[in-house]
Amino acid sequence: MLISIAVDYRHANVETRERFHLSEARIQRLHARGMHHEVRELVCVSTCNRSEIYAWTASNDPATPAAFDHAVTAIARAWMGSKSEARALLAVAKRRAGLEVARRALRIAAGLESQVMGDGQILGQLRESYRSAAGAGAAGSVLHRLFDTALRTGKRVQNETAFAAGRRSVGAEAAAVAHARFGQLAHARVVIIGCGKTGHSVARQLQKLGARDLVLINRSTKRAEALAVEVGGRAAPYEAMHVEVAMADVAIAATAATEPVVMYGPLRTARENCGTATYPLLLMDLAMPRNIDPALAGVPGVTLADLDALHLPVLAAEEARRNAAPSAEAIVEAELEDFVEWVAAAAAREAIRPLAQALTEICRRELTFAAGDAVAAHATDRIVAKLLARPMTKLRTAIAHGEALHAFTMTLDSLFAGPPVDGPRDVSRELGRDGASEIARPGRARARRGAGVLQPTPVLQPGNP
């Protein structure tokens, strides 16, 4: 069963997202301690506007609502580390299962679920999350396939549509807000705290919009200096941050810190000492968790905008991209159909695996004896693929008509492998709520498909408390 648990900007404000943020420490703990025995694969996705876990769970019996709830609870406890915090998480988290999860992953990669529609950074963040899970051994064949499909979907949307055109990152939108506030930036001093991807995006966009007095601050001075050279600004020491912010018109924070770095007391003192206590100062916090002390919103002259506040002006910039959204949606549905068909064929692959392994072993041994290792490896793959092409077609047709493969699998196991310990694994049944799900029966899914869109059936909708 494919499931996900998500806390994102659509259902939770920035304070709530901050509480349940999938920090690096939490992700490492999830990877290191393992999961409940029914949770076989796991990928943690963490961005500035969402914390989400994708999981592949399975049992010998068809998935039930009780199994779904049990797996979700186990993941929530591993995520938060205690039962009470897990309950708090599940009170606000969005839970999904089956086809809805697969579609969600592809839509995120395409930029269709971003706070900034068409966000150009989300694809890279998704790729890093997947690589982290794969490197830790937490992702298996199903999630490998799902995220490979999602990343391909995102690339297609970027290359084949205008959906990702124009300003599309949070950093670029923040620069646009600063420009709108001042009308022109040639005489405004802008401090950028954090020179990672978001900070780099902000600096580049500010430079394009006419900013000339850019101050770059980063814990690593070398990174700040390199970005300063690129955008024609200057690097300042991290220790001088509050003084630099006090002297600025705009300060934008986007670091990986897990707690505020721009603090109420030090900044207020710095503004008093610099004689700028009554000057207007725009603070924009693009980080999750937040980098700017929320108490600064009450300081005279200070305007504080966090990710939630930034969303309002972003809505206007999205209009131009909405016209291209149908093209992006069509790509998502086409790629989703490919993933569905791959999952539907999983039972056939599992059933025929013992025969495939036996044929591969015999071919490779005999060909190695006759022609050597290099020739044997290539020829074996071609011979086995040709021999199994017709059986695979027959098995996939049987699955499409709802026929069970249990007896066939047991027969092949007894003939070509040892007896199975827990019985055969039918992956197609595990993805949905039962063997009749349209993921397991692509033929019936096509019959219900209207206007080229794959519609989920109630059996894949577990309910969202």
Structure description:
- The protein is an alpha/beta fold.
- The chain has 3 domains: 2-165 and 324-338, Glutamyl-tRNA reductase, N-terminal domain (Beta Polymerase, domain 2); 170-317, NAD(P)-binding Rossmann-like Domain (Rossmann fold, 3-Layer(aba) Sandwich), CATH 3.40.50.720; 346-431, no CATH class.
- It contains 19 helices and 10 strands.
- The protein has helices at 14-19, 24-33, 65-80, 83-92, 99-110, 122-135, 141-160, 170-182, 197-208, 221-231, 241-246, 264-273, 307-322, 325-344, 346-371, 373-400, 406-416, 427-431, 442-448; strands spanning 2-8, 39-47, 50-57, 94-97, 189-193, 213-217, 234-236, 250-253, 281-285, 302-305.
- Strand 8 (250-253), helix 12 (264-273) and strand 9 form a beta-alpha-beta unit.
- Helix 5 packs parallel to helix 7 (141-160) and helix 15 packs parallel to helix 17.
- The longest helix is centred in the C-terminal third of the chain and has 28 residues, at 373-400.
- Mean pLDDT is 81; it is low at 419-426 and 429-465.
Summary, kept brief:
The protein has about 475 residues and is an alpha/beta fold.
Keywords:
alpha/beta, 4-stranded antiparallel β-sheet, 6-stranded parallel β-sheet, 465 residues, 10 strands, 54% helix, 12% strand, Rossmann fold, Beta Polymerase, domain 2, elongated, 3 domains
